[in-house]
TrEMBL record:
GO biological process, one term: rescue of stalled ribosome
Superkingdom of the organism of origin: Bacteria
Example of a GO MF term: rRNA binding
RNA-binding S4 domain mapped to chain residues: 2-65
Swiss-Prot/TrEMBL keywords: Protein biosynthesis, RNA-binding, rRNA-binding, tRNA-binding
Species the sequence originates in: Thermoflavimicrobium daqui
Function of the protein: Key component of the ribosome quality control system (RQC), a ribosome-associated complex that mediates the extraction of incompletely synthesized nascent chains from stalled ribosomes and their subsequent degradation. RqcH recruits Ala-charged tRNA, and with RqcP directs the elongation of stalled nascent chains on 50S ribosomal subunits, leading to non-templated C-terminal alanine extensions (Ala tail). The Ala tail promotes nascent chain degradation. RqcP is associated with the translocation-like movement of the peptidyl-tRNA from the A-site into the P-site.
HAMAP family membership: RqcP
Gene field: rqcP
Pfam families reported in the protein's UniProt record: S4 (PF01479)
Family: Belongs to the RqcP family.
Subunit structure: Associates with stalled 50S ribosomal subunits. Binds to RqcH, 23S rRNA and the P-site tRNA. Does not require RqcH for association with 50S subunits.
UniProt name for this protein: RQC P-site tRNA stabilizing factor
SMART domains for this protein: S4
Length: 94
């Protein structure tokens, strides 16, 4: 298990851990369909849905590693969906 904010940083889904914490605390990350805070423990098989501005990315956690090199980071998750939001009303429904 690993904290959600640390996973986002180590997997390079988010560049910095402080930014990962902010994204979580703003309610822009779901773990298995439920809103998650930065300290939420995640494990292999969990599905993360993250809203980045006008884009929603859904990934499945494949592997948890404490420290990952750049080329290993992409192996930590599988991209399931990537959706572009069309309007502000789409953003509010997340």
């Amino acid at each position: 298990m690993m904290r959600l904010d640390k996973f986002l940083k180590v997997s390079r889904l988010v560049k910095r851990r402080t930014l990962a914490k902010e994204v979580c605390d703003q309610g822009r990350v779901l773990v298995d369909g439920k809103p998650a805070k930065a300290g939420t423990n995640i494990s292999v098989g969990d599905e993360l849905t993250i809203r980045f501005g006008q884009k929603i990315v859904t990934v499945r956690i494949e592997k948890i590693v404490e420290n990952a090199k750049k080329d290993e980071a992409g192996l930590m998750y599988t991209l399931l969906r990537e959706e572009k939001l069309q309007s502000d009303s789409d953003v509010l429904s997340f």
